[in-house]
Design a protein that fits this description.
With 482 residues, the protein is mainly α. It has 20 helices and five strands.
Length: 482
């Protein structure tokens, strides 16, 4: 009798370097690929942009599996209950999956494994999503790290990715496959299609991920180090959504970038840029490490003193920030880029997050929620770490008293206004001297550029000097209450 193994795809929507799939292919005669969509993720159900990406990624994965002679079984519901229903339809002896490290996934996997083992079903789980599992990287005293540099010093010396496991050449299916829904049945796509900008900007799926990695290495890696802070330049990898959905894994990226650096031994610019980029993969590892060890940080600040921080509740200003109508061009350009493409340049993410938490004194949690719904790379670990970093309340966070001046940030990182003019076309005729501070421009300059402050482009929501003083006073009040 042929042995049957069920492979559960979750946040690992790829065939190459997928340890769970690879093990099932080598250990079982027959493999049943399954994707279970569980909408009940508590307060962190997938946002609208993520749902669109998931639909597209599943479409690609389903097609790729079909070419291997099999079929991706699509179901929705509670993970454990649904797996048991599948087991009632086929005589499988083992279930394979790659481990998850977010709070919901950890609990769900643990409970499911216990139930399956009690029913005599073997569970084989693997790590295909991180370079190091969180529980394997601890301080000398056995505590989790809260600062990136010592964390990365320990991790980086232990990474050795010489081989990438290939995708299977064929998948053998049982004579009778379990019942399946269609991808459309999951209801992931919006009823009113607002995804044109995202469809233009992205190619979801494993092939799209590989193509993006190749383009990054061939065309952008050499200038990554100097260009990664310039939002108008196309110098970053844009692999974050592919990584989040597991269309490509960190091992694959590490291997490809490391090999490119080795092959360019005489190109010091490329080698430096490669090191800087790989450190960013380290930040992703750190984000998952922190969320795994401190799961409450998805909702609460890691630094306890910030639980009493006097955040403001101002829906009008929050909406203006969300819509890119703050009156600060670099902030508005970033928020509009996010709405149109589902993505924002990392330098600008820091600027808009600082503006929300320090200029408007609105909680990092509000920003985190908005990014969660609008980003195609909305990853709970990365999103949480990034927002708590900006708000000064998380692991290895920027001090709260470090307050970005959006005018100076724009002048430094978008000196010609190229980025702003792309996303704020009403400012396209503003001279570079005034593009990041139109409220300071002479009336003749505004008139010549066709800009009417308060009408065609908003006045600043808040004065920078006032906002800075208010933010520092709020910080002092927090210290006094500790």
């Amino acid at each position: 009798m042929k042995s049957i193994g069920i492979v559960c795809f979750r946040n690992d929507l790829r065939l190459e370097d997928n340890f769970a799939l690879d093990a099932a292919v080598h250990e079982c005669d027959v493999v049943v690929p399954v994707f279970i969509w569980n909408e009940d993720q508590g307060s962190w159900a997938a946002g609208a942009a993520s749902r669109w990406w998931l639909h597209e990624s599943l479409t690609y994965l389903s097609s790729a599996i079909a070419k291997l002679g099999s079929k991706l079984i699509i179901l929705k519901g509670d993970f454990q209950t649904t797996i048991l229903k599948i087991l009632s339809q086929i005589d499988a002896s083992a279930v394979y999956w790659n481990r998850r490290y977010d709070p919901f996934g950890v609990i769900e996997d643990k409970d499911s494994e216990k139930t399956l083992i009690e029913k005599g079903i073997a569970v084989r789980s693997f790590n295909s999503g991180l370079l190091h599992e969180p529980h394997t990287v601890l301080t000398k005293s056995g505590e989790p790290y809260k600062v990136f540099t010592p964390f990365w010093n320990q991790c980086s010396g232990r990474i050795n990715v010489d081989l990438i496991s290939p995708a299977p050449e064929r998948l053998c299916s049982p004579k009778s496959m379990p019942n399946s829904l269609s991808i459309d049945d999951l209801g992931l796509k919006p009823k009113i299609d607002w995804t044109a900008g995202m469809r233009q900007a992205w190619i979801p799926g494993e092939l799209g991920a590989k193509q993006q990695l190749d383009v990054f290495i061939d065309e952008m890696l050499e200038r990554y180090q100097p260009g990664r802070d310039i939002p108008a330049e196309d110098s970053v990898s844009k692999l974050s959504p592919h990584l989040h959905f597991g269309e490509i894994g960190p091992r694959q990226i590490w291997h490809a970038v490391s090999m490119a650096a080795r092959g360019a031994a005489k190109n010091s610019k490329l080698r430096v840029s490669a090191d800087v980029y790989l450190k960013e993969i380290g930040w992703r590892e750190f984000a998952h490490h922190v969320l795994f060890h401190f799961p409450h940080t998805a909702e609460q600040p890691l630094q306890l003193k910030f639980r009493k921080f006097p955040w403001r509740d101002d829906q009008t200003q929050l909406t203006a920030w969300q819509k890119g109508k703050t009156g600060y061009p670099i902030v508005d350009a970033g928020m509009r880029q996010l709405w149109h493409t589902g993505w924002m340049h990392n330098r600008v993410r820091m600027v808009v997050a600082s503006f929300l938490t320090k200029h408007l004194l609105i909680s990092w949690a509000e920003g985190s929620r908005w990014f969660w719904d609008t980003l195609v790379d909305a990853d709970l670990a990365n999103n949480t770490l990034g927002w708590q970093w900006a708000g000064g309340c998380g692991a290895d966070a920027a001090p709260y008293f470090r307050i970005f001046n959006p005018e100076l940030q724009g002048e430094k990182f978008d000196p010609d206004g190229t980025y702003v003019k792309r996303w704020c076309p009403e400012l396209k005729d503003m001279p570079a001297k005034w593009i990041h501070k139109p409220w300071k421009a002479p009336e003749a300059v505004l008139s010549s550029a066709g800009v009417q402050l308060g009408k065609t482009y908003p006045l600043p929501l808040v004065d920078h000097s006032f906002a800075r003083t208010r933010a520092l006073a709020a910080l002092e009040s927090t210290k006094a209450s500790v």
